[in-house]
Design a protein that fits this description.
6 strands, globular, alpha+beta, six-stranded antiparallel beta sheet, single chain, Thiol Ester Dehydrase, Chain A, 3 helices
Length: about 150
């Protein structure tokens, strides 16, 4: 795996601020476990509104977790004054998420000024414990438009 150096010295605060300001991320309840250049681990606690009919994490919630973890990992590699948006993501559900916590580990695979890609592994209860889903997230990076005065 490549080792990345963040072009923004304040990458951790920038990623936490952007993700923390998103209403969907707030509603779902994502928490940061780890934020490093090119790598982010998000934690999600099970709540009734995130369940499917058997009480496990619902697949769409896992997909959102993959999207946000991969996007956050790519976000650690943005230059100051840049944001990103998801272009595409894929989800592979491997086994039921019958647990109290999910951990999604996003790792940047490739990064450029325009496009970034991250792989995501979703673990039950703790990272490395039991893999229940994987995904791939591709983002489009862009400069924040400057507002005229």
């Amino acid at each position: 795996m490549d080792t990345f150096e963040a072009p923004n010295a304040d990458f951790e605060n920038a990623v936490k601020q952007v993700l923390g300001s998103m209403p969907a991320a707030k509603f779902l309840g994502f928490e940061f476990d780890t934020v490093e250049p090119g790598r982010v681990v998000l934690r999600l606690e099970l709540r009734t509104e995130l369940c499917e009919h058997q009480g496990n994490f619902q697949g769409g919630v896992i997909g959102a977790l993959i999207d946000f973890a991969g996007g956050a990992a790519c976000g650690t590699m943005l230059k100051p004054g840049f944001l990103l948006m998801t272009l595409d993501y894929s989800v592979k559900l491997l086994r039921p998420a019958d647990c109290n916590y999910l951990y999604a580990e996003g790792k940047v695979l490739s990064n450029s000024s325009l496009i970034s890609t991250a792989e995501v592994m979703v673990w039950k209860e703790k990272p490395g414990e039991a893999l229940c889903a994987t995904g791939l997230v591709t983002t489009r990076n862009f400069a924040i438009p400057q507002r005229s005065k």
